[in-house]
Design goal:
Blueprint (H helix, E strand, L loop, with lengths): L28 H7 L8 E3 L9 E3 L4 E8 L2 E7 L3 E4 L2 E3 L5 E7 L5 E9 L5 E4 L14 E2 L1 H4 L20 H4 L14 H12 L10 E3 L14 H4 E6 L12 H6 L2 H4 L20 H9 L13 H5 L2 E3 L7 E3 L27 E5 L7 H11 L2 H6 L5 H13 L3 H10 L3 H10 L3 H8 L6 H13 L3 H14 L4 H13 L3 H14 L4 H11 L2
Helix pairs in contact: 12-13, 13-14, 14-15, 14-16, 15-16, 16-17, 16-18, 17-18, 18-19, 18-20, 19-20
């Protein structure tokens, strides 16, 4: 009956110097108006414009979705169990897609399971990663790390969420006069774009390690990007990979970039202040270096050498491949592909910067990416992120005692308690969790431990508190049912299991336990 999970908390942004982006408008009215029409300027929206829908049935899960209006709000409604949540925000400009979010009463953003895609004139399909029977439903939390490439700075005065990437992402904090990226050196100028567009594998390697101690939104245009984050790729990368945020990755792999001596950058083709999809413009840029190229290049260089391709992490999105290829693919790169759900991991190598300085911080980032226990131990971790990475490496190596110690040092108490329970150390796990702050995951873990110790009444009190904190958490309702069942309240247990299934229809344990308490 145990139902424990590692709690991953978002890192709260608290960055000084950022102002409402409209502050830039009076002096830069034309650029401001033009930029706000670009994809970056429209990459996040409060009160989004929601395309109409005639409904969508997801065959893999057997669930059906529709949009309904309730008291002036648009709700995403799911059957079975008639569950729905309001659409309060949208991620994505709509040029390729929009994923919709719900903001809870506690201020958390939750990704909704249905997204809109521009392909085929516009269609509703499952959100990226959701095309599976056991998808995340209405439970996937959107953290600051997710928002980084779609939103301004959540610590701004404008209610905490900006509408899209604003001027300050590229120009720095507006409280002092901004940085002009055009006046930076070639490397620093390029890094202003790479901060959001250098993804090698959609976060599964890990593809990047943020320097321990640095906040999500702490990068400043003009500083070395490697002081903020280090990027990695598979030790044996596949050349034909493409992800939504991989434009910079593709460009860095291109011979055109590598042979340009720093002359070729993102802004060679793209004016960041304007939306430009004009093929003749891009052809002119290509021919500025390849004037003697073959005749077809006069029409549309990118059509052959930067083909449109379907992205592997969002399979209903087609984007331009920014790896400039000598010859086009022989097959259609926009043909439908199946969504992958296996976690792609393996040995990694450094991607960017091309060489790491021989500093403790750089060596630590490399050790974290490679899960190198010896190097992590030698670094003498003093940061929670490092401790947790070390704990996971210990766990993978079967060193449970060391993993428990590292999880505790990193503040991941529920993860430590899981391992302790697996070793039969329930009393020690209780002693670990009882002084911990009250959050839903800690309360769930502690309640199950209490049930194991025949303290069902104490467990029940904890579960009421957990549901008060996280009313949409199916695990909390499941565990409430377990606690009620343990105290002899079969009717109350059935109601809790039914609510758990309403929140997560594929939750097999809730269905199994419900059948048990309703059986004659």
């Amino acid at each position: 009956m145990r139902w424990l999970a590692l709690l991953t908390l978002p890192i709260a942004a608290a960055e000084p110097g950022y102002v409402d982006p409209s502050t830039c408008q009076p002096c830069h009215a034309r650029i401001y108006a033009s930029y706000m029409r670009t994809g970056m300027g429209r990459s996040f929206r409060a009160e989004p414009v929601i395309p109409p829908s005639s409904g969508y049935r997801h065959e893999a899960s057997g669930e059906s979705y529709s949009l309904v209006k309730r008291e002036g709000e648009t709700m995403l409604h799911r059957e079975p169990y008639g569950f729905e949540r309001s659409i309060t925000h949208a991620v994505g400009s709509g040029n390729h897609s929009q994923t919709f979010l719900h903001r809870t009463a506690a201020g958390k953003l939750i990704e909704l399971p249905l997204s809109w895609y521009a392909e085929k004139g516009g269609m509703w399909r499952m959100s990226p990663g959701y095309d599976r029977p056991d998808h995340s439903g209405f439970r996937r939390e959107v953290t600051d790390s997710c928002l980084f490439c779609h939103n301004g700075y959540p610590s701004q005065a404008n209610s905490g969420l900006a509408n899209g990437i604003d001027c300050q992402r590229c120009h720095g904090p507006g409280a002092r006069h901004a940085v002009n990226p055009a006046k930076l050196g070639a490397e620093r100028r390029l890094e202003v774009c790479l901060q959001c567009h250098l993804e090698s594998a959609s976060g599964t390697l890990p593809d990047a390690v943020r320097t321990p101690g640095r906040g999500v939104f702490s990068y400043r245009p003009g500083e070395r990007l490697s002081d903020y984050i280090t990027y990695f790729e598979f030790a044996a990368p596949a050349d034909d990979r493409i992800t939504v945020n991989g434009a910079g990755y593709g460009m860095l792999k291109s011979a055109c970039f590598q042979k340009s001596g720093g002359r070729l950058t993102c802004t060679s083709c793209h004016n960041p202040h304007e939306q430009n999809t004009d093929a003749p413009h891009f052809t002119q840029v290509c021919r500025s270096c390849h004037a003697g190229s073959h005749e077809p290049a006069r029409a549309n260089c990118t059509g052959c050498h930067m083909q449109k391709r379907r992205t592997e992490d969002a399979v209903h999105v087609v984007m331009t491949d920014h790896r400039i290829r000598r010859r086009p693919f022989a097959t259609d790169q926009t043909a439908p592909i199946a969504e992958r759900h296996d976690r792609m991991t393996g040995p990694v190598r450094l991607l960017y910067p091309p060489q790491l300085p021989d500093t403790p911080a750089a060596r630590l980032s490399l050790a974290m990416a490679q899960r190198d226990i010896q190097s992590l131990e030698a670094a003498k971790p003093s940061n929670s992120e490092v401790w947790i990475v070390l704990a996971e490496a210990y766990k993978q190596a079967g060193r449970a005692t060391d993993a428990i110690r590292a999880y505790r040092n990193g503040g991941a108490l529920v993860a430590a308690a899981e391992l302790m329970m697996a070793r039969g150390e329930s009393v020690a796990a209780i002693q670990l969790l009882e002084p911990a702050p009250n959050d839903a995951k800690v309360l769930n873990a502690l309640a199950i431990l209490y049930v194991d110790q025949n303290r069902s009444a104490d467990a029940l009190k904890l579960m009421y508190r957990a549901i008060e904190l996280e009313p949409d958490d199916p695990a909390s309702w499941l565990n409430l049912g377990v606690c009620r069942e343990a105290t002899g309240d079969r009717t109350g247990a059935a109601a809790a299991y039914q609510m758990s299934l309403r929140l997560q229809p594929d939750l097999a344990r809730a269905r199994q336990f419900l059948q048990r308490v309703t059986r004659p």
